[in-house]
Amino acid sequence: xxxxxxxxxxxxxxxxxxxxxxxxxxxxxxxxxxxxxxxxxxxxxxxxxxxxxxxxxxxxxxxxxxxxxxxxxxxxxxxxxxxxxxxxxxxxxxxxxxxxxxxxxxxxxxxxxxxxxxxxxxxxxxxxxxxxxxxxxxxxxxxxxxxxxxxxxxxxxxxxxxxxxxxxxxxxxxxxxxxxxxxxxxxxxxxxxxxxxxxxxxxxxxxxxxxxxxxxxxxxxxxxxxxxxxxxxxxxxxxxxxxxxxxxxxxxxxxxxxxxxxxxxxxxxxxxxxxxxxxxxxxxxxxxxxxxxxxxxxxxxxxxxxxxxxxxxxxxxxxxxxxxxxxxxxxxxxxxxxxxxxxxxxxxxxxxxxxxxxxxxxxxxxxxxxxxxxxxxxxxxxxxxxxxxxxxxxxxxxxxxxxxxxxxxxxxxxxxxxxxxxxxxxxxxxxxx
Length: 433
Ligand code: EPZ
Fold this sequence. Notes:
Elements: E1 3-7, E2 13-17, H1 22-31, E3 38-42, H2 48-59, E4 63-67, E5 74-78, E6 86-87, H3 89-92, H4 102-109, E7 111-115, H5 128-136, E8 140-144, E9 147-151, E10 159-161, H6 167-177, E11 183-187, H7 193-204, E12 208-210, E13 216-220, E14 228-231, H8 236-248, E15 252-256, H9 264-272, E16 276-281, E17 284-288, E18 293-294, E19 298-299, H10 311-318, E20 321-328, H11 337-344, E21 348-352, E22 355-360, E23 368-370, H12 374-384, E24 390-394, H13 397-400, H14 406-411, E25 416-420
Parallel strand pairs: 2-15, 3-14, 6-7, 10-11, 18-20, 19-20, 23-24
Antiparallel strand pairs: 1-24, 1-25, 3-5, 4-5, 7-9, 8-9, 11-13, 12-13, 15-17, 16-17, 20-22, 21-22
Helix pairs in contact: 1-2, 1-7, 4-6, 5-6, 6-7, 8-10, 10-12, 11-12
Bound molecules: ligand EPZ.
């Protein structure tokens, strides 16, 4: 199991580049199921979840080429022959976003057999809203032996109102609706940029979609989709993580290859907390800090509110802010796994249900800590960058799921960080989510 060794104390200075968004790439790769033609996606991040998605599509009979050469970071997918439209448990249990193949498989082949994803470290992660929407579109779905069996001669357009805002639920049903017979209207949709990115790809493939990025999406079903080439959005969560890295270390960091328009809530919070954040160019943001940080409350909300995927990272910053900061997690029921590890580094945090009270500023001391999930790992890296001494972070495979070569990127702007153990290899590690 790989570990990170991080010695704190260095302000991060220079330019750090953001990779493509994992949470855009995953639905866009699944969208290739909807056509016999080849789909080419660029700006694909070299992270473990993308390799898992490649394995998943290949296991169903797709041809998936995944290249990370210098100019590449590209995948070419052909789902001409889907000989085995089954998302097997061995793969699904390592990445619950595998449920994104459910809608495309039913829409393209009329059937799907997808292992129930089960929960993960941050919560139960049900997909009942995906199922409810597909049944509304005429699919018959049964559950047995831990698998969803879904069938539909041809999905039909429907009016769907999501009980809760769900990102992959919106994406799953959006993909299904593109090949349904008639119009589908979905309300209370997720407005995340990843939904808009997927809709752009689907439109390039010939889908007829209106309203992506708003809470109401209309889709006129078509009989078939064709291939397309599409460039994946920059990863707004990686960008936000680096902005916090610049602020927490008191450095002067330019976060490049990002989309500042996707970072509004995070940039606003950092400014309120005392960092200086400015749009440096149309695809870069500069963050500096020349004074103490102030405790500013956050409450996670769906986009464009403060992202739940940035909560753990912000909490690390809050440990260095003067005063008591209230961190409210409204989206997932168990997303404070990083708290105990931060406390072991000297943070003063008390959790009461969905709220963590962070009293700062606390000097952090280096420690051996354990990563538990993707964003909790990022929180521990940020804390270790300011802790006194050398921290050891164990189980960094969680980090490799969604951050591309983060130790190299951070070292490039002055962090003292190195990886112990094998370099990232695409081989799949049994990972409980
Ligand atoms: C997506 O997960 C992201 N993953 C998550 O990022 C992100 O945290 C989450 O959206 C919220 O922004 C991908 O895009 C691959 P949801 P998703 O459905 O779609 C409940 C990361 O760190 N819900 O929007 O699975 C659910 O339990 C990952 O990159 C139902 O009740 O999240 C949660 O409380 C972690 N029934 C809330 O909705 C359903 O059918 C939002 O979940 C679906 C969801």
